[in-house]
Amino acid sequence: MSAPLKPSGAAVVVRNLRRSYGERIVIDSLNLRIERGEFVALLGESGCGKTTLLRALSGLDPINGGSIDGPRLPAVVFQEPRLLPWETLSRNVALGLAPGPQSLAAAQAALAEVGLGERLEDWPRNLSGGQAQRVALARALVQEPQLLLLDEPFAALDALTRIKMQRLVKHLIERHQPGVLLVTHDVDEAIALADRALIMRGGAIAAEYRVTEASRPALRETLLAQLGVDADTAADTATH
Predict the structure, then answer these.
(1) Which long-range contacts (CB under 8 A, 24 or more apart) does 217-224 make?
(2) What is the domain extent for residue 196?
């Protein structure tokens, strides 16, 4: 079965973005374009502005200069699932959709996509961490978003669950074709999922790399070096 054609046009265009907190400038003259159907991973040291950029794109934070040309309310999946404990899984997924039978039917289809189609009337308290993130992903994708923002959504999961979730996300993104920005500290995750990997430094995009099957082995070392991490040290850390 052939892969679906990627939709044309930009999911979001950022021009000369500036964001500051008082006297402290966090983002300065940042430019970014993500195409529909493109998966972009954003890496950088803690405090470089990754989450600030994501919050600006999501509309959660104001900006102090520049422009963001994209959807007013993109879909966001955070590190925590942020499910409403007093609502069933199907109603959690239907949040943000117009009330009615069509929205519940869409929520049911979305839950089936993430492997939870048998648990429509279950409650968030009965879910594992990975299952809760599946619901959060279903809630984001049921909107058929132009832009999907992923803020380290697998960081709190164990290694095996994280791998399963990465594979699920890759499949679902290929199916729904939003533009995606993934904020992550995990280089291996970035090169496994992304079409393009960006390094953020000093409040701007310092480097970008196209990710291909052939480039992945060498790109891992390049990205680690950009982040100030020795590849051997990273390998030792991953095995412990």
Answers:
(1) 219/191, 220/187, 220/188, 220/191, 223/43, 223/187, 223/190, 223/191, 223/197, 223/199, 224/187
(2) 10-74+145-238
